[in-house]
Amino acid sequence: MKYTAIKTFFNSLNIHTEESKLRKAFEVASKGGGAVDLEAFLQLYRKVTRRKELVQLFMNYCDLRRNITVDSLVLFLQKEQMEVTAGEKFAKLLTSRFARNMAERKDARLSYDGFLAYLLSPDGDIFNKKHHSVYQDMNQPLSNYFINSSHNTYLVQDQLVGASSIQGYLSSLRDGCRCVEIDCWDGPQNEPIVYHGKTLTSRITFRNVIRAINQEAFVISKFPVVLSLENHCSFEQQKTMARHLKNILGKRLLTTTLDGDVPHQLPSPSDLRERFLIKGKRVGSIKDDIRKYKSSMKGGTRVEKEEKQSQGASHKLQTVPEELSNLVVYMKSIHFNDLASAQAEQKCYMMSSLNESKAKKVSTAGGANFVSYTRSNIVRIYPLQTRIDSSNYNPVDLWNYGCQMGAYPFFQ
């Protein structure tokens, strides 16, 4: 294997070493030649990936033969890994599993390579293996959960001149994201486009974005996905958006409340499994729309006629067409003026988005009242516009106040 191939391979594994150090290590492994064989490559790999802190940790517990015995492994597990119940039986199981050869396995010991294999395995993971799948109660109202959320999901580089890509949505959903953002603007031939408006970022079509989301949304998780619409489109192109959402997402798109009545609390993640929720502007109240829906199911011709006349009179005043407005069910976007007004006026199915600066001011001033508000209403926090390098704010303080959606870029 030649130097350029090794360098490319290391980069693909996110093994980044200074050029001079890698070149020197290669010359030693190849003995001045232009390539290395498999054994020499393995030695080169071990040298480049060797971490001093892990070597020191190993030396703290190994014997004079540079092996960790069962007794030392028990001590390591209890002291370093905090596995206080680990005993001789468990330590022997680990040595049999991670020993590098038959001699080590027979003597129940681990060399450095075996010790490293254990640390990098699921057995050495900091997280409880039982928690790799969902183990929490998922039957509480949606406002009781932190929701893995993304900001400007389509951007895979910076926020000013970077590329907009379908890959942003695919990667975010594969990483477990449950709320993705779609910035929608008018495009050619009545086809809405997605990009960071008034910047030099590239453009992708809204239709292809929805197709990609539909493809990947429930592969990693079956729990609901929120499509956060940042809507800047004209009246007619919003109708196109609604048509694509319905046609592509089909029956998985939530278009009315689950029980057909006005919600008094949000449904649970379990209730919404494999469903898409639209977050956006909604014209009129859910109560009126449910009344219309029930009337249409009964074939109410008089009510329909009155509604058509009303729609004709108010059409010019609407900023969001009924086709798109009606798709917003449990996540109606409401402007956040102040905490007192939000607590007094907002229903459980209304939510607000605050930038990180405003959210910190509200949380500091509101304290317990802000916590009380987030018990029933979802709050989305997004980065300041000054973060053009796609850097992230620290969401922990706002999580502590119950803010469910700490939205930030997935790519940096």
How would you characterize the overall build of this protein?
The chain is of the alpha/beta class. It folds into 4 domains: 1-50; 51-125, EF-hand (Recoverin, domain 1, Orthogonal Bundle), CATH 1.10.238.10; 145-283 and 319-406, TIM Barrel; 291-317, no CATH class. It is built from 18 helices and 11 strands. Strands 5-4-3-6-7-8-9-10-11 form a 9-stranded mixed beta sheet. Strands 1-2 form a two-stranded antiparallel ribbon. α5 crosses α6, α9 runs parallel beside α10 (206-216) and α10 (206-216) packs parallel to α11. The two termini are 32 Å apart. Mean pLDDT is 90; it is low at 302-307 and 309-316.
Give the helices and strands, then pairings.
Layout: H1 3-12, H2 19-30, H3 38-49, H4 52-61, E1 68-69, H5 70-79, H6 88-98, H7 102-107, E2 109-110, H8 112-119, H9 166-174, E3 179-185, E4 193-194, E5 204-205, H10 206-216, E6 225-231, H11 235-249, E7 276-280, H12 286-297, H13 301-314, H14 322-325, E8 331-333, H15 339-345, E9 350-355, H16 356-366, H17 368-374, E10 379-382, H18 396-400, E11 405-406
Parallel strand pairs: 3-6, 6-7, 7-8, 8-9, 9-10, 10-11
Antiparallel strand pairs: 1-2, 3-4, 4-5
